[in-house]
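Task 17 of the worksheet. Students: predict the tertiary structure of the chain below and write it out as structure tokens. Keep your answer in the requested format; marks are given for formatting as well as content.
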Amino acid sequence: MKIINPAFEYDSSSGQLYSGYRRTDPRIAQIIYNALGSAKTVLNVGAGAGSYEPLNKYVVAVEPSAVMRAQRIALRKVPAINAMADALPFDENTFDASMATVTIHHWKDIAKGLRELRRVTREQVLILTFDPDALSNFWNVNYFPEVVEIERQRYPTIDFITETLGGSCEVIPVPIPLDCVDGFQEAFYGRPEMFLQKEIRQAQSAWSFLPEGEEEKIVKRLADDLASGEWDRKYGVYRTRPVFTCALRLVVAKN
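Model answer:
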């Protein structure tokens, strides 16, 4: 299965409810805020509805989706500039720090977008993303291999990110808490029933790339094993596991 266009259409009906299911998890946020350090001005690119934006810093947001920009206003976030990651409308070294959280896999030109972040940033660039080489460490690969393969094609490798950003890079594995409120796939490692809700899947962009009719077949695999108890026999230990560290990474690149 080859993904030709990596962009998820946030202005479609699927994007209308995004901010209700993809929210700032405070434990993950703290890792990001620690990495921002003493930066006073922060650029957030692919900012969406405003998840993970620090409240104690001057934030400038860039978001090309009109639906996402409207959700920001509803959530009382700072209004976002309508621009693309690969053509940021700022001078060199404008911001102390910049961040892009679970967004770079949507960019049409990831390398150019990363170089743009570096160009406009004086100090650290933060990229929250998933390591495609670690995606198979989550049990969903045994139920949704088609979805995992879509994700693997879309996410750039960690080496690609660090080499493109340059400078001194630190890669931080991010543990996910059992009650994580940010609704990406790994957030439900101990709550598999959540995948049976269509609204949850609509907030996870990879599902939208499946051929018509495939989503229902894939979900039925999990539904059947949950009903029979097979999932719990194989993976029930995850229901009480307080944290799960899988593919989520925070890349911190400093000049």
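Marker's comment: The chain is about 30% helix and 15% strand. The mean pLDDT is 93.
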